């Protein structure tokens, strides 16, 4: 992909950038540039460019605003101790976006072009990648996304599509140390059903989770747990994270995919746990099995994972008529978390070949 670059004539000055990187938060500050490429049936993918970060001008009839034809990805760039910058398994994000594109009737952006786009933006805005000389977990969060940009009102796949990448420095998800999250069991709402878009990373899946997440917060919980839409008994995932249940014999169970997102952190943990001699089972896992396992002690740990939090222990589970305490142990959870984070930040050997050097 031939990418043109127009430099930002008024980038954030060094003093202000230092303030931002000292306490970046999450998703509140954005780098000096953005990447854009467009698609039409006649030209295919064309006009790839890096330009100064700024607002988009959209016609009120732009298709995405009416029919929600949109997909996105979430990934990070990490600065290692020697100053080099690396991506974590970017080819897997590219492949997942292809799967999402197929489900949303989008053109497919080739894996190589996806990675080239992300790399190009990271290189232009490399000064925005925080360092972690204090042993922290700061990174540059990357948001590739694709949307129906055709000006047209009609229920059909868009004939003009735009793919973009923006970036935002991110601080550690947990300030003051990793803490167990408290979960609310949604018994009224479901996230996705068989044949739906649950396995695609599209905004509609997250929009459908918001009312349940709102309910969770009102109940004093951090996240919401969704059950399957067909029988209402099998655990699927949280609003934005996948789940794991550690058994007393060392096995780890995680809900099978199909109606849930195939998380890249999720897949990495499955490989990493295997290397740590813990067999991982991907299967249906009922809410009754969760309750009984914690009560009788056969479930020794529960944890969740996602790009932002990486790995977090799970504490208590609440629902309308009751509450279940979380398992006391977090030993394996923290071992897995440390092993993964150390690879991402270059503090441990990458024996899996997951890290992709950008500069």
TrEMBL record:
It holds the Pfam family Aminotran_4. It comes from the Bacteria. PROSITE patterns: AA_TRANSFER_CLASS_4. Keywords: Amino-acid biosynthesis, Aminotransferase, Branched-chain amino acid biosynthesis, Pyridoxal phosphate, Transferase. It is an enzyme of class 2 (transferase). Its EC number is 2.6.1.42. Pathway: Amino-acid biosynthesis; L-isoleucine biosynthesis; L-isoleucine from 2-oxobutanoate: step 4/4; Amino-acid biosynthesis; L-leucine biosynthesis; L-leucine from 3-methyl-2-oxobutanoate: step 4/4; Amino-acid biosynthesis; L-valine biosynthesis; L-valine from pyruvate: step 4/4. It catalyses: L-isoleucine + 2-oxoglutarate = (S)-3-methyl-2-oxopentanoate + L-glutamate; L-valine + 2-oxoglutarate = 3-methyl-2-oxobutanoate + L-glutamate; L-leucine + 2-oxoglutarate = 4-methyl-2-oxopentanoate + L-glutamate. SUPFAM superfamilies: D-aminoacid aminotransferase-like PLP-dependent enzymes (SSF56752). The modification N6-(pyridoxal phosphate)lysine is found at residue 201. One of its GO terms (biological process) is L-leucine biosynthetic process. Its cofactor is pyridoxal 5'-phosphate. Belongs to the class-IV pyridoxal-phosphate-dependent aminotransferase family. This is Branched-chain-amino-acid aminotransferase.
